[in-house]
Design goal:
The structure is a homodimer of 139-residue chains.
Chain A: H1 6-13, H2 17-25, E1 33-34, E2 40-41, H3 44-58, H4 63-74, H5 81-114, H6 124-130
Antiparallel strand pairs in A: 1-2
The first copy, chain A, binds a DNA duplex (30 and 30 nucleotides) through residues 5-7, 16-19, 21-22, 26, 35-40, 57, 62-63.
DNA sequence: CTTGAACCTCTAGTGACTAGAGATTGTAGG
DNA sequence: CCTACAATCTCTAGTCACTAGAGGTTCAAG
């Protein structure tokens, strides 16, 4: 009997069993076959595909982008312009988030640093939250 | 007739009408009264409360944390230790995300930079996604 | 008194999983 | 061959913080 069970595949790719099944329901990853009893069986190709999916997810690509990247990957002769495009868009997003998070970090740091550890009525954390004008960074 | 309608409150706080209603269903913000016909009416205190909520959301505090911060704010004589704690936890989260996003940024930048704009079979984007070992940063 | 904007409630959808119930299958040991 | 029991199956619902829309009612201006 060749093929990995869903449990083994989950182990091999550090993915939860339910997640793998979820990818099947949304049409991202179908097991190459099933046992007579209905258990899923995956082959090496499936495993590679899942690795690709997980890696892209780790980099924060949304499922729909991954769907497109997979279909590009399945057609190696096509131009890689779209892949490039998708990656660049993701990079833009990441950079926007970075900018925002840095502003948040600054503000939170200041709030925490200025808290005198006394009562709520004197608390800088509560005070700043009540009044945006007390913020220095824009967020 | 005193008080703001939901629409005016929405305008004043740059919040969507539905979002304000949502905050009511989860018990975060109740209008101080209603018209005979059932329309919500908000007062200044409600507006301040919503401002607090929105500001905290902008800083990424989850609703449950905001609920607690609000109740602290309503009891100014209590110690601000918890408020401090919540803010510090949020700061930790933000810093963790920053670290991760910086790693993603690095990896995506490299992917995009190394793409030769040719065919998919030679595409660095696709190649890196297929094989995590090609990544330099851990993510 | 009419018009039409603003409001009402209720339900369902988003993204990417995650959790659990209740039933079936696979496999190792006896 | 039988028995445990782990692993798997399907199906449904929950997560978070909204967002969108249907279908109906109220309010304010003219």
């Amino acid at each position: 009997m060749s093929g990995l069970t869903i449990g083994r595949l989950a182990e091999a790719t550090a993915t939860k069993v339910q997640t793998i099944r979820y990818y099947e329901t949304i049409g991202l990853l179908t097991p190459f076959t099933r046992t007579e009893g209905g258990h899923r069986l995956y082959d090496r190709k499936d495993q590679k595909r899942l690795t690709f999916i997980r890696h892209a997810r780790e980099l924060g690509f949304p499922i729909e982008a991954i769907r497109e990247l997979l279909s590009l990957s399945d057609n190696p002769q096509t131009s890689c312009e779209r892949a490039d495009d998708i990656a660049r868009r993701r990079l833009d997003e990441v950079e926007q988030r970075l900018t925002r998070l840095k502003a948040l970090q600054k503000e939170l740091k200041r709030m925490v640093a200025e808290c005198g550890h006394g009562r709520v009525c004197d608390c800088r954390v509560i005070e700043v939250l009540s009044d945006h004008r007390l913020c220095q960074a824009s967020h």
